[in-house]
């Protein structure tokens, strides 16, 4: 049976109460967050930046990023109201710089070119229409903005067993994309300079980094008037 957003929402609603205490915070989420913050710092330095964190959960990464880069403005988006509700204390503490939004990754409620960075850590395998989600990420990034997308690395035997066997058995028919599949999706969405880095460990993950391309100018048509065959004939006869 195909995995859909209703299943994802129900699963994360059940998980929301124990989300901040689960073992994955230590095994996977913490290392992923550190990798993202390190990369953003390397690219942006201490400049003020706007960041959209898709699949933000209870806001743990958003609060860590804001603490590391105090000049940043972070919007956390999640499909599940229960996840956002469980992060209420974090949202209040950072209320002037971190903003929670309930929304769908396939229809991001933001104008084109709104963000310098988009992050998405360890939720992408729950997205039924991954290509549409990445196309939306490209749309709301500024030209030259960066997408940093992390998900489980399943191309090696250990990662395949964890993500394609164990996680699929527990969470349903979710889909961890291969590194090749990620490159295909990012290329089709219009991203450039795609780079990938594998982080090894008990729960290995793949960091995909890509740069949003400049929009293609609209073609305004030829700068001449096309005459009809009859008008050309009349002119030649005169």
Automatic annotation (TrEMBL):
Top-level division of the source organism's lineage: Bacteria
Protein name: Demethylmenaquinone methyltransferase
GO biological process annotation, one example: methylation
SUPFAM superfamilies, per database record: S-adenosyl-L-methionine-dependent methyltransferases
Domain Methyltransferase type: residue ranges: 52-148
Pfam families linked: Methyltransf_11 (PF08241)
EC number from the UniProt entry: 2.1.1.163
Coiled-coil region list: none
GO molecular function, one term: demethylmenaquinone methyltransferase activity
Gene assigned in the entry: menG_2
Keywords annotated in UniProt: Methyltransferase, Transferase
């Amino acid at each position: 049976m195909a995995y859909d957003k209703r299943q994802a929402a129900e699963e994360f609603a059940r998980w929301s109460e124990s989300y901040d205490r689960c073992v994955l915070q230590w095994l996977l989420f913490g290392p992923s967050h550190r990798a993202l913050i390190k990369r953003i710092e390397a690219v942006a330095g201490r400049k003020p930046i706007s960041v959209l964190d898709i699949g933000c959960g209870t806001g743990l990464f958003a609060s860590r990023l804001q603490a590391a880069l105090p000049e940043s403005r972070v919007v956390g988006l999640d499909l599940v109201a229960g996840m956002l509700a469980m992060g209420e204390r974090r949202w209040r503490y950072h209320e002037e710089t971190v903003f929670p939004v309930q929304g769908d990754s396939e229809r991001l409620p933001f104008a084109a070119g709104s963000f310098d960075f988009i992050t998405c850590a360890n939720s992408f395998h729950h997205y039924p229409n991954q290509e549409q989600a990445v196309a939306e990420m490209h749309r709301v990034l500024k030209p030259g903005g960066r997408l940093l997308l992390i998900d489980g690395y399943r191309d090696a035997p250990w990662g395949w067993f964890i993500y394609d066997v164990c996680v699929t058995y527990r969470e349903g028919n979710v889909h961890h994309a291969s590194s090749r599949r990620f490159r295909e999706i990012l290329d089709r969405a219009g991203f450039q300079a795609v780079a990938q880095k594998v982080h090894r460990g008990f729960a290995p993950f793949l960091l995909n980094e890509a740069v949003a391309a400049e929009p293609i100018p609209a073609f305004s048509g030829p700068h001449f008037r096309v005459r009809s065959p009859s008008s050309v004939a009349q002119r030649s006869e005169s």
